[in-house]
Amino acid sequence: IKVHELDVDFLALSGHKLFGPTGIGILYGKESWLEKLPPYQGGGDMIKHVTFEKTTYADVPLKFEAGTPAICEAIGLGAAVAWVNKIGIHKIQAYEHQLTEYAVAALKQVEGLRFIGEAKHRSGAISFLVGDTHPSDVGVLLDQQGIAVRTGHHCTQPLCDRFGIPGTVRASLAVYNTTADIDKLVEGLRKAVTLLG
Asked: Could you tell me the pTM of the whole model?
C-alpha cells in the first residue's frame, strides 16, 4: 500500500491479519496529524522533559510509545512481514484465489449449504449456512472432527439482523491451506448434515 500516493491521513493494520501475533499492529499517520494529537497514555520514554508545572512530550513517534514496548509481538510482526515479503504478496494472492475458487465449487456440493455473500471478487473468507441449522451447532460438529471454523456475527450483527440470520459459519483460507483441507471441510460438513438431518 502506497500511503503517499493514496494521501491517507491514517492507516491501521492488525498484526494477526498478516500472519503475525495478536495484540500488535501498525498505525501509519501523517506527521502533521501525529504532532497535533496528544498521547493517549503515559509512561517512560514518551517524555522529553517533566516538571511539577509542565510536561513536554518527546517527538513523534516516541510520544506515543509509553512504557515497555511489546517487544516479542514486534519481533513476531517483523518476522511475519519478512515471511510475506519472501513469498511475495502477489504469489500469495494468486494461490489464495485458486484455493477460494476450489472451495466455493466444492462447498456448492454440500446439500443445503447456502453462501452468505457471493461477491465476484471474493477473498479467502467464505461465509455460509447449512439448512436451518444454527451456525454454532455446525461449528461444534466440525470442531469435533478437528476442523476449525468461526461462527457467529463476525462483527456484523446489524447485517445479520437485516438478513434475518443468527450469524454464519465462516471458513477462512490462507496461503498455508491446501485443497486437502477443503476436502476435509466438505467431508466434515456432509457428516454434520447427516447428524443434524
From this structure: 0.83
